[in-house]
Amino acid sequence: MTERQNERHEWLGSIAERYNLDLSTEKPASTDAGFRSYFRVADRDGKTYIVMDAPTDHEDVRPFICVTSLFEKAKLTVPHIYEQSVEKGFLLLTDLGEKTYLNVLNEDNARELMGKAIDALVQWQSISEPGVLPEYDRALLTRELNLFPEWYISKHRGKTLDERQSALLKVCFERILQNNLAQAKVFVHRDYMPRNLMPMASGGPGILDYQDAVYGPVSYDIASLLRDAFISWNETFVIDMTIRYWEKARSAGIPVPEDFGIFWKDVEWMGLQRHLKILGIFARLNYRDGKEKYLADTPRFINYVRQTAHRYDELKALLFLIDQIEDCVPKYGYTF
């Protein structure tokens, strides 16, 4: 048994009597892309809880605690925090179940489930206010974009950009940032996707993995929801669901553009920032953290980048670069 396991068992033992826990029932529940691990433990009547184990040398549970209170303020379903040890990195949470949207989505229920996710998103954004969450500012957006050349291009593809290619990428990054930063700001979950949503009998989805929430561009979470890391939708469905979100957001007073065409471009360009970031993150997870499974989904994101870059003349240089990085014959020119 590792030192960390001993710490977790000791902490659980200190609260076991209060919750009538049977510690012999503890078993792994899941892991995520970070350093957190989750365990399921039952009480002696069969009720289960989730234990978040977040090693303090890598993780801080305080953001999770803060954002949980915001989601509860919005009257949305998130894991309730029964017990917490900030100094040790342990939380005892509600068990929302074992199935996520990713496990259950199909052609028959997609419109209903994604509609509920959109309703919850609007509800979350409706309580937004500045000064509560960290700003999704230029510095953070830029750091995220730079993961793409550092980890995907250099480490994964083994390419070194020449001076001209670097200049092209810099221009494209600046154009993306200018669009992102010009958008109105709301609370942003930052990973609002089917893997982090859970179907609940009570109606709206259970929401997970929100500790990295920020105050940033209004289009980010809907772009995240409909351009997912692990599941792709046809363009008609994506546009239809985006329109549904846009209409509900406008009715709720959320600061989306009055013109859907403008908002659609915002969603696409915000999604592009996210896709480039995730390509870098997935490569980093493989080469730095030894988590190989994420690399299998990089072609999906290359395709997302290609689709968006192809639609806008201002981004044709990015399409040109992607073709070179991926060793494809360039099919399009590029302009400034």
From TrEMBL:
Short name of any one Pfam family annotated for the protein: APH
Domain Aminoglycoside phosphotransferase: 27-247
Gene3D superfamilies: 3.90.1200.10, Phosphorylase Kinase, domain 1
Domain of life: Bacteria
Protein name per Swiss-Prot or TrEMBL: Phosphotransferase
Native species: Parasutterella secunda
